[in-house]
Write a structure and sequence with these properties.
2 copies of one chain form a homodimer. With 337 residues, chain A is α/β, with parallel strands linked by helices. In chain A, 52% of the residues lie in helices and 12% in strands. Chain A is built from 14 helices and 7 strands. The first copy, chain A, has a 7-stranded parallel sheet, with helices on both faces. Chain A is globular.
Chain lengths: 337, 337
């Protein structure tokens, strides 16, 4: 049994709900680790109703995401939805191997909330884990909800596709940019137009704000969905300017989702996506077990001899596994065969 | 048949070998696309002997990788191994959605070789493709070898783990850094010590070069494998300084691999890794097909009703697929059950 007495999920959930500060970080550590322990945590978390609200914050490095998150924390505890006054922040560490330096500073900056009992801050990273963040973050959000935290902010530190996808897997996704030629076009290229429920032009005391807003409006004219046109909010987060308006705009989007019934639909879609991701991770584990049992020896020898290629070798294994029909059958790859 | 007459792989290989300049880019496009067309290309490429040599270049952004690659190209065509005078460069575009700007400049910089018949340069990106680069780049290297190009340089533009892994999947991996406190430590943290066959301290006319070299030597004292201690070369790529020495060092590493028999072993290991990656991609396709056929409807309804969690739902599908034993059996997840 890898689950020791100290990390028994049921007991940890009870303790976390009772306000024991060590319990929640331990639950999230289990989620981060993956494996059987995280599954036991997920089993409990997913059976609790999904009642907390999540906000994702993403955007290019240097756009001021951490400063903004800091300000949103203040709004959340002072002007929380339905009178709520507590908030959790998940800071998603980059999977990039090259950015160790900047993160610590950002995290430290957020620490002026760290002694506040109403604020729970945690960094999450699942380095080296296949698709790890794509399941760990949704799981973590369900854990936060199950222990009764009413609001969760997911801030991505990194700039990879995985981090952007994670920030997008929230109820309201905020894309942060800065004034300046090309920023809106970059956002469009990066697929951020599709995930944004709300744009923030941060550092809006700088030149180029009007142009960036105009670019964004133009792109929204072309592509915004009919049901919700993303709001554009200008902020100077370092001075707290525009942050109350940003919080209002997040609240408006939340109202739109709740009253239109879209909140439930979107959450169901996200859960399906997570299910796919978990399925893939499980299949990877099955492959690793097959490898350990020597199931691939023949295929690899053919490969090394130049008598096969990785695609043909993989297909042969899948046919043997029974998940794929032999070439020519449905699902079989017949190209070039 | 998705393979049209114009993109028939056999004909394209013949044309590329005969020196038709449009044929090779078309083959690489097919590889990049994935799917049946890329499989037909791989089938031919993997049956040809793997006779070309590959050099990977990676390191933090701004370290001067492109300038260095440019200089290595010159060395390769003037002082190629065994009298070879041709080289291919694969510039791996970042999967990061935020870095459109810098790349173009780098590519343009490399274009002073673009009119040279001995130099073939191509950018590769497989955005949105699960593990795409991890199979597309090895496939592309086999294509380059099959059409008779004796040397391939894989330069990563991006900084993600995937790009680093791709650069490491070459015969000689060069890690580029700059003088300055902490660069060597960063490299160590990022796992670059493990993949480097050769370190370049570029911009070595700047302060801190001696300290960076000392840090590196210290780390190599602790961790370098007995068979090969990575060489450290100092360059000022923008002035061409140290580049001939770098080329010599690459040649020495190549000699070491060839004479020790490690070249063949390493290549076989890499092919096994690619095979695993292809297996995973194929399994993803199988999952997508199941989804299309409505195989997940029941599991997703349970999920939505809060009667299950993504892990349990995935396990149920795998049991049904026959790739996993029912809970309690080998490979089954019994935690929390």
């Amino acid at each position: 049994m890898p689950v020791t007495r100290n990390s028994d999920p049921e007991a940890l959930f009870r303790a976390a709900k009772a306000g024991e500060r060590v319990a929640l970080p331990r639950l999230l550590s289990l989620v981060e680790q993956g494996g059987p322990a995280s599954r036991a945590v997920a089993e409990i978390a997913y059976r609790a109703p999904d009642e907390s609200y999540s906000v994702g914050i993403t955007g290019a490095p240097g756009a001021g995401k951490s400063t903004l998150t800091n300000q949103i924390i203040t709004q959340a505890i002072e002007r929380g939805f339905d009178g709520a006054d507590r908030v959790a922040v998940l800071a998603i560490d980059p999977s990039s191997p090259f950015s160790g330096g900047a993160i610590l500073g950002d995290r430290v900056r957020m620490q002026n909330h760290s002694l506040d009992d109403r604020v729970f801050i945690r960094s999450m990273a699942t380095r080296g884990h296949l698709g790890g963040l794509a399941v760990a973050v949704p799981d973590a959000l369900r854990v936060l909800s199950a222990v009764g935290l009413p609001l969760a902010i997911v801030e991505t530190v990194g700039v990879g596709q995985q981090e952007v996808a994670v920030a997008a897997a929230t109820d309201t996704t905020v894309v942060v940019m800065n004034p300046g030629w090309g920023d809106a076009i970059q956002a469009n290229k990066a697929g951020l137009m599709e995930i944004a429920d709300l744009f923030v032009i941060n550092k809006a005391d700088r030149a180029g704000t009007r142009e960036t807003r105009r670019d964004l409006e133009l792109m929204l004219d072309l592509s915004a969905p009919e049901a919700w046109r993303p709001t554009i909010v200008e902020t100077v987060a370092s001075e707290g300017k525009g942050v109350a308006e940003l919080w209002d705009a997040i609240g408006e989007h939340r109202n739109h989702l709740v009253t239109s019934g879209r909140l439930e639909v979107a959450r169901r879609t996200r859960m399906e996506r997570e299910f796919h991701q978990v399925l893939l991770i499980r299949l990877q584990e099955v492959i690793n077990e097959m490898e350990d049992q020597g199931s691939f020896v023949g295929a690899l020898e053919e490969l090394a001899a130049g008598a096969s290629d990785p695609y043909r070798a993989a297909d042969e294994v899948l046919v043997r596994l029974g998940v794929m029909a032999a070439p020519g059958g449905p699902g079989g790859s017949t190209a070039g065969g």
